[in-house]
Design brief:
Elements: H1 19-31, E1 42-47, E2 52-54, E3 59-63, E4 66-73, E5 76-83, E6 91-95, E7 98-109, E8 112-118, H2 124-133, H3 136-167, H4 178-197, H5 200-206, H6 212-227, H7 234-263
Parallel strand pairs: 1-8
Antiparallel strand pairs: 1-2, 3-4, 4-5, 5-6, 6-7, 7-8
Helix pairs in contact: 1-4, 1-7, 3-7, 4-6, 6-7
């Protein structure tokens, strides 16, 4: 083998084991401003028969575990009062001073709740305007998050396999530096994503997540494989691509679960 054909640097292959923690942090930062778990003052969503109202249109005041939330609907106040204690499913509502039905449907996280009200009727044009004001990401979180997570896994796995096959085309020496970089990147990605998606006090209560243990272990094992000498032979590149696919898919599942739990997204 010509010495000039041997690379002493791992080249672009060094980035493949970092794809999962990197994407974890990227997704967390993208959804952090609108994550349900960040809304800790009472209500994240109100559903009525004709429309739904999102958190940023609801004004809440909270005292101890009781929250009173108000939103203007057709120029009339819709007021919801609820106990934010997850063990107490108390919910009351009035619309324009008249009592209407109210029920807690589920909680996105501590202090971030969703209720359904009945008996609230508005003109069709008003209801259509309220539906238009409901943000697309609210629908993503409540209806399509599982599909989005599967798409994330379905894209990242094959991408890691193709990248590994292409980037392993030239021989290179072994490089063990990734053994430190990958576990550190996993822990840093987990910590930063947690702080981005939930209030810091909830993050401290949440504690270290066991979901990320297999991610760090698998990514470290993948770093060991990438750190070995690269021959550049086709059969070795195919084996590396299959390993990249398996490791990435296996690691992506707990990452999606972690983001879902940290962000307060319903399953």
């Amino acid at each position: 083998m010509d010495v000039r054909d041997v690379r002493t640097s791992p080249g672009p292959l060094r980035f493949v084991p970092l794809a999962v923690p990197g994407f974890m942090l990227l997704v967390a930062l993208l959804i952090a401003p609108v994550a349900p778990g960040k809304a800790t003052d009472g209500l994240y969503r109100i559903d009525a028969d004709q429309f739904s109202v999102y958190h940023n249109h609801i004004s809440c005041t909270k005292r101890l575990s009781s929250a009173t939330c108000t939103v203007s609907v057709d120029g009339k106040p819709l007021i919801v009062t609820l106990d934010t204690d997850p063990r107490t499913l108390v919910c009351e509502a009035t619309f324009d001073g008249e009592r209407v039905g109210c029920a807690r449907t589920f909680d996105y996280g501590p202090g971030s709740h969703r209720v359904s009200v009945t008996g609230v009727s508005v003109p069709d044009a008003v209801a259509a305007d309220l539906r238009d004001r409901f943000p697309w990401w609210g629908t993503l979180f409540d209806r399509y998050w599982v599909q989005a997570g599967l798409l994330f896994i379905g894209v990242l796995g094959p991408a890691a396999a193709v990248a590994s096959f292409l980037w392993a085309g030239r021989p290179r020496d072994a490089d063990g530096r990734l053994l430190v970089a990958v576990p550190v990147a996993g822990v840093v990605g987990w910590a930063l994503s947690g702080f981005a998606l939930m209030p810091w006090e909830r993050f401290l209560e949440f504690g270290p997540s066991l979901l990320l243990v297999p991610v760090v272990l698998v990514m470290t094992g993948w770093a060991v494989v990438v750190g070995r000498p690269v021959t550049g032979r086709v059969e070795w590149r195919v084996a590396l691509a299959l390993t990249a696919f398996a490791c990435t898919v296996f690691s992506s599942v707990p990452v999606v679960l972690w983001i879902s739990l940290a962000a307060g997204i319903p399953d």
